[in-house]
Request: fold
Amino acid sequence: MSEATEVERLTEADAAAELARLAAEIARHDRAYHEQDAPLVSDAEYDALRRRNAAIEARFPHLVRPDSPSARVGAAPAGGFAKVRHRVPMLSLDNAFAADDFAEFCARARRFLGLAVGTRLRFVAEPKIDGLSISLTYEDGRFVRGATRGDGSEGEDVTANLRTMDKVPQKLRGKSPKRVEIRGEVFMTKADFLAFNEAQAAAGQRIYANPRNFAAGSLRQLDPAITAQRKLGLFAYGMGESSEPVADTHWAYLARLRKWGFDVNPLSRRLAGEADADAFQQEIGLARGTLAYDIDGVVYKIDDLGLQRRLGFVGRAPRWAIAWKFPAEQATTVLADIGIQVGRTGALTPVAQLEPVNVGGVLVTRATLHNEDEIARKDVRVGDTVVLQRAGDVIPQILEVVPERRPKGAEPYVFPDRCPVCGSLAVRPPGEAVRRCTGGLACPAQAVERLVHFVSRAAFDIEGLGEKTIRAFHEDGLVGTPADIFRLADREAEIAAREGWGETSAANLVRAIAARRRIGLARFIYALGIRRIGESNARLLARHYGGFAPWRARMTAAVEADGEARHELDSILGIGPAIAEELAEFFAEPRNVAVLDELAALLTIEDAEPAEGGALAGKSIVFTGSLETMTRPEAKARAESLGAKVTDSVSRRTDLVVVGADAGSKAKRATELGVRTLTEDEWRELAGFG
Ligand code: IVH
Reply:
């Protein structure tokens, strides 16, 4: 039964009682979230409560309560922390779940480096601590700044809180580089966590869901005195920027960290080859339960820092490290209902609402059901007992139904063919798995999800305008389209008058919005929320086209399927025809272009910055023939890290063609067009290979 049909069945008395219950419950969550930094439910659950409240109010407008949550925005976010840009991004790790995945990771690294199949790779293995990663900067050996990871590019300055931690050396022992940044994981022991929660419960105070949330909440306290009372541990394991090299191997680097005065996880071990990983994984898996802190796997890092540098990164993860996770944890519970969420691109996603159950230390109340075929394939019915699985950070999944426990009369689930939010037809194109609402911009769910995406962290990231606020502003008609956000300055008084706001917070918001009128092209493209254009594709596009005007011009031209602009788009490495098609569809819709232009008129969109060094900034480069001293992926990755865009075909727009052995038509075409060609040696020189 979907949320919408349920609301339709409510009697007036039921509705009044439920609105009272929702008002109290939402207020309780607001307090937990804003005042105690300890959310009791996931954002999705919270949003579902607010949506339900709004749906009931829409049906029974005369029952809207004076203390209705829809009249109230959540209090201003914790705020108060300055932003810190990470000069070397803080990345995440790809996961392995089995020996095969690990073997494949090793094979990939070898292929990238052009090493023979049997070549041994030496690793350092470290337990993967389930905590919060932080960056600590030291200048002349003194601790000067500490920051959270944030979105990887920008975190929060929590120096004052970190100074209260015994485990953060204020001064490095012995010699150290002029400037060095150390990374590690802040965590809390299981015992301290349980003791804290017990004391909180006894005092009728909020409890935290798991040690990781607790560690995070403790570091993000506005009052360092509170952080000081919490017993936080720290294991150092990584390197950020450094004014001079510190070591040749990761193992030697860990030794250096210990000398400087950091705790390095004592279970860390150097492995002579990948064959030892299996045994180490088993050993740590067995020790896991006896450890004082939570771990969720083992991180394997290639020991040689020279190889690490050559391997570099792909997307948000290094090619030189992998997190091999422990097997997923399972539990059974009852499926109470199936709800339908409508996403930014209109996709209808079924979500299982579960009787709360503890899976590996985390309370789970929802699980994704993916799509209608998945529900049919598993024959999941409301009322069924289901087996749930949670692996690492992955959203919980329903593995299967326990058939013996199916209640009598449980009916197969019928997937709705209308959007539960706007009522438009929801259609599923042949060959696709997803059913989509056809309401487009007219569907409030799509409009609001687009706004939520627009202000999200990797997009406009406006301080004080988080998901909850933007939803409330949308609900109350303050913002309909992204451009409206930049007109909120005209409505400052109205915002100030809202409950939970006031003149200062309204003025702060207006200021924060003004500060974001200047934005980089990649973020801007990402913020538009075009299907399949995530952060990394947005970066590729920004780097390729350089500026907003050329991008817009080439995209409108690329609407034509066989034209030159579409061909150019197709051939950007990493884009390809499916993504090009998606962009063309977006630009073929005049309403989208109107929204885009309206926004562009209100903003200063900065040209894309070339990556690190930028020796090849903005250059378009083609590799052809076989290279002898490096693999093609390594060559491409290096070119991209120097700011070049790598394409497959040679045209007048190509700046450089690197010609390897046995090159064919592309080298010929380069000569015909008068494009500069380089030999492999010249390329090595240009790209700074030793
Ligand atoms: S290395 C570029 N080592 O896991 C490499 N990470 O899933 C970045 N983590 O954000 C991380 N223990 O918060 C590394 N021994 C360890 C770790 C570790 C825990 C966390 C860290 C990172 C996340 C990635």
User: Anything to note?
Assistant: The pocket of 2-(butylsulfanyl)adenosine is lined by residues 91-93, 126, 128-129, 133, 185, 237-238, 299, 318, 321, 323 (CB under 6 Å). Residues 520-606 form a domain with the DNA polymerase; domain 1 fold (CATH 1.10.150.20). Residues 95 and 486 are 40 Å apart (CA to CA).
